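In the previous lecture we treated proteins in isolation. Real proteins rarely work alone, and many bind small molecules. This record shows how such a complex is specified: first the sequence, then the SMILES for magnesium ion.
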Amino acid sequence: MPEPVLSIRGLRKAFGAHVVLGGIDLDIAVGSIVGLLGPNGSGKSTLLDTVTGFVPKDAGRIELDGRAIESLDPGAISRRGLVRTFQLPRMPARMSVREVMLAAERSGSGLADALLGRRAPSALAVDGLLERLLLTPVAEQPASAISGGQKKLLSIAMALANRPRLLCLDEPTAGVHPNLRQEIMALLRDANAQGVTLVVVEHDMAFIRGLCPRCVVLDRGELIADCAPDDLADHPRVVEAYLGRAGARAARKAA
Ligand SMILES: Nc1ncnc2c1ncn2[C@@H]1O[C@H](COP(=O)(O)OP(=O)(O)O)[C@@H](O)[C@H]1O
Ligand SMILES: [Mg+2]
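The predicted 3D structure, ligand included, written as tokens:
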């Protein structure tokens, strides 16, 4: 495997007696796109939360580009290039969509780049991202007042404006109009072509197939599969995780 941008070893997290991550080992190759799947409650968001420093882990080692990040806070982790989006994005109440984007662009050093003359002024990049995600018509509205799907799009645009090297997306298309899913996929592909490694939590299998050559599946705190999306349907533990034992037996009989 090419050099991992992210390396996770023995990652454990429990909420009380409920073990949500039971010792996860996972490497994400630099430049890759990896789908992170699993039934509801299997620990996908908790995995992103612990890796990005939003939730303290119980044990384990997490390295970004070979350097330990497990003692860093979320802001420091983001400045090192590991950025994430949330399943339910929250937006500041008093800022417009455009202001939120400009703030994200500035915190990602876009302004410094612009001042140093390395690229066009950041407002242009912000306008381009807003246009591409069909957010131009709501650009002057409060970010907290747009629809759930639009917040999702805005959160992806904000994350990209931060110039991540590794971007983890938690259900990027949930609640987004189906017409826009292709646009999100194209945007993520472009980001990847420019060198951004992606980890995508997603339930839409067409989206996963279209974007991710590799996917890993979580179930009850364990990684139970690591394969191409097309091989998932033949994976007994994956079928069982989604359908339960009885369902898996029924599916085998029907096949
Ligand atoms: N802060 C929390 N306190 C207690 N239990 C939690 C907390 N966050 C998540 N959980 C539990 O951990 C399990 C995994 O949740 P989550 O990581 O959100 O799953 P997924 O994203 O795969 O749907 C669920 O059973 C959930 O109820
Ligand atoms: Mg989740």
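Summary for your notes: The pocket of adenosine-5'-diphosphate (ligand 1) is lined by residues 15, 20, 38, 40-46 (CB under 6 Å). The longest helix spans residues 236-254.
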